[in-house]
């Protein structure tokens, strides 16, 4: 589980779906801090950094806004550099419209 994480990883931010003892132990063995909120039905609720978890929500919102752009959501561009250019343009417009 989560074996493809880079060696420099210090923290993992995940949602409640990743709240299991096996995942938490795997991360602890690699000295990685888990920022995963506990499930509602969990008896022993481990602590997590709520402020760090809140930043994850902001990133998810940005991806949701990018998916509103049809060209980005359906990946019309065949070349990776053209696709990244479309993402940059869409992100710029989203940022501009937010102001």
TrEMBL record:
Record field: transmembrane: 79-97
Span of domain Transposase DDE: 12-94
Pfam families for the chain: DDE_Tnp_1_2 (PF13586)
Domain of life: Bacteria
Keywords: Membrane, Transmembrane, Transmembrane helix
Signal sequence, start to end: none
PANTHER family per the UniProt record, alphabetical: BLR1914 PROTEIN (PTHR30007:SF1), PHP DOMAIN PROTEIN (PTHR30007)
Protein name per UniProt: Transposase and inactivated derivatives-like protein
Originating species: Tanticharoenia sakaeratensis NBRC 103193
């Amino acid at each position: 589980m989560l074996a493809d994480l880079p060696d420099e990883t210090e923290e993992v931010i995940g949602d409640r779906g990743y709240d299991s003892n096996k995942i938490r132990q795997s991360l602890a063995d690699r000295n990685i801090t888990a920022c995963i909120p506990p499930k509602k039905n969990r008896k022993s609720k481990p602590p997590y950094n709520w402020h760090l978890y809140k930043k994850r929500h902001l990133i998810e919102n940005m991806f949701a806004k990018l998916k509103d752009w049809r060209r980005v959501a359906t990946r019309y561009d065949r070349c990776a550099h053209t696709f990244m250019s479309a993402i940059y343009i869409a992100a710029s417009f989203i940022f501009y419209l937010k102001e």
